[in-house]
């Protein structure tokens, strides 16, 4: 089990809420709170230093993984290609490849697997970044 951090931004200032030993239900609630405006980031942290960050909200999410060995991966939706999408993640507007903006079901599935196991869901598509 991991901890989750929920970040809401008010200008340059971020408020963080930490839920230690979070349940899948608490994780789902945190992802539901993402609004692509103020509350724009949920991070699942594991004891080994690895993390999964979910940004955006309102049905559109950018999900990225990193670890202490400088390995980084981004969740991909293979049904989407071409073009770019704008999302607010970590309090900042970003432009992302359309394939790296996923729907809620993929974001929740990736996050729930990582929360429970500390690993990426191998049945999903991840792109090294």
Automatic annotation (TrEMBL):
Lineage of source species: Bacteria, Bacillati, Actinomycetota, Actinomycetes, Pseudonocardiales
Species this protein is from: Kibdelosporangium aridum
One Pfam family, short name: Imm1
Name of the protein in question: Immunity protein Imm1
Domain of life: Bacteria
């Amino acid at each position: 089990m991991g901890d989750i951090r929920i970040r809401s931004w008010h200008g340059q200032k971020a408020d963080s809420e930490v839920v230690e030993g979070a349940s899948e239900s608490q994780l789902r609630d945190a992802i539901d709170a993402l609004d692509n405006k103020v509350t724009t980031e949920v991070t699942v942290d594991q004891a080994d230093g690895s993390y999964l960050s979910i940004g955006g909200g309102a049905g559109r999410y950018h999900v990225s993984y990193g670890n202490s060995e400088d390995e980084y991966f981004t969740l991909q939706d293979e049904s989407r290609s071409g073009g770019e999408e704008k999302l607010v993640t970590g309090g900042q507007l970003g432009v992302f490849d359309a394939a790296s903006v996923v729907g809620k079901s993929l974001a929740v599935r990736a996050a729930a697997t990582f929360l429970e196991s500390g690993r990426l869901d191998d049945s999903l598509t991840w792109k090294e970044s």
